[in-house]
């Protein structure tokens, strides 16, 4: 069975602003979550594992891109006592923890299946809150301070973050599918510093 693909050349017609790119990411994550949730104990185990890893890598990549381009400096502001930054950092930490738990989970026997479903349900709450708050407030605010050119450039960088995902998980067109992901595990991607992430991102292809 083929591995679900995540192409870096997803249709972009009409996408100009970084807020559009983020919302497209959100819709993709919601769809992947729904697909994974709809799998049952009788479904092919390999296919379920592929869906699980696809969703987890996509969410990890999304969180990293959000911290790089939408919420830069959050850690610094949180350390200075900024309440909004502290809340944002707390929400991201919770979502990150649940993501790591889900990426390591197995759903073989009945007990494992029950645990897997529980982790999915827990992650859904955090993901839904993230999407709701970002789209209602953060994206509106960021577009107010960016020029069209700045927002378009951020959108290009944001979408290039798809290359953080290993090629066996995301399948790109010829010439791009071979771009090597710099991190071997989801944990390594999430643990990378902003400087390290920005450095490797600079070498990723852009449209």
From TrEMBL:
Gene3D superfamilies: nmb1532 protein domain like. This is Hemerythrin-like domain-containing protein. Residues 20-136 form the Hemerythrin-like domain. Pfam families: Hemerythrin (PF01814). InterPro entries: Hemerythrin-like. It comes from Cytospora leucostoma. It comes from the Eukaryota.
């Amino acid at each position: 069975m083929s591995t679900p693909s995540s192409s870096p050349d997803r249709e972009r017609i009409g996408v100009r602003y970084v807020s559009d790119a983020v919302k497209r990411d959100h819709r993709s994550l919601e769809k992947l979550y729904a697909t994974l949730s709809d799998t049952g104990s009788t479904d092919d185990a390999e296919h379920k594992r592929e869906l699980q890893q696809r969703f987890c890598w996509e969410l990890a990549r999304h969180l990293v891109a959000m911290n790089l381009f939408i919420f830069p400096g959050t850690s610094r502001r949180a350390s200075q006592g900024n309440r909004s930054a502290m809340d944002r950092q707390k929400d991201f930490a919770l979502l990150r923890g649940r993501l790591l738990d889900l990426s390591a989970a197995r759903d073989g026997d009945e007990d494992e299946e029950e645990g897997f479903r529980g982790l999915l349900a827990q992650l859904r709450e955090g993901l839904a809150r993230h999407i709701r708050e970002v789209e209602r407030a953060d994206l509106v605010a960021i577009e107010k301070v960016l020029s069209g050119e700045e927002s378009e450039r951020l959108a290009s960088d944001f979408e290039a973050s798809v290359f953080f995902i290993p090629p066996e998980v995301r399948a790109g067109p010829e010439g791009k599918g071979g771009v090597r992901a710099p991190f071997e595990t989801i944990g390594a991607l999430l643990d990378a510093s902003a400087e390290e992430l920005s450095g490797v991102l600079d070498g990723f292809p852009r449209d």
